Amino acid sequence: YGDHRDLHLSLRRQRQMCIRDSLYTWVLIINVIFSWLIAMSIFNTQNRIIIAIYFGTKRLTDPLLNPIRNFLPNLGGIDISPVVLILILYFIRNLLYEYIYLGIPI
Fold first, then answer.
1. What integer pLDDT is reported at residue 60 of this predicted model?
2. What is the spatial distance between Cα 6 and Cα 11, in angstroms, rounded to a whole number?
3. Cβ contact 16:93 at 8 Å
4. Average pLDDT in the 68-79 region?
5. What does the H/E/C string look like for the chain?
6. Nearest to 58, CA basis, from 97, 16, 27
7. What radius of gyration do the chain's Cα atoms show?
8. d(Cα 41, Cα 60) in Å, to the nearest integer?
9. Which sign, positive or negative, has the C-alpha torsion 20, 24, 25, 27?
10. What are the tens digits of pLDDT across the range 2-42?
């Protein structure tokens, strides 16, 4: 009975981790799209809702994006740090899934 309960808790943690990663990935994508639309003057920067959403997503994503931006070379206005961050997040999620949730010894 204990093994079944441990498996259930492990699956629940895995599901929570996937949901958390997916939500953060969507926040990151929304931030990128908003920054493009603001840079191309498609979004009105006087609109309080647009700016609130943009700065809210920026505050959530910048703490992880800034170290990546500092590490990457300057590509002349092209910011690939969101792509790098998404790849890192998926790599960490898969690594945790294999080593922690499947019980593979390190």
1. 94
2. 9
3. no
4. 87
5. CHHHHHHHHHHHHHHHHHHHHHHHHHHHHHHHHHHHHHHCCCCCCCCHHHHHHHHHHHHHHHHHHHHHHHHCCCCCCCCCHHHHHHHHHHHHHHHHHHHHHCCCCC
6. 27
7. 18
8. 23
9. positive
10. 455 555 556 666 677 777 778 888 999 999 999 999 888 89
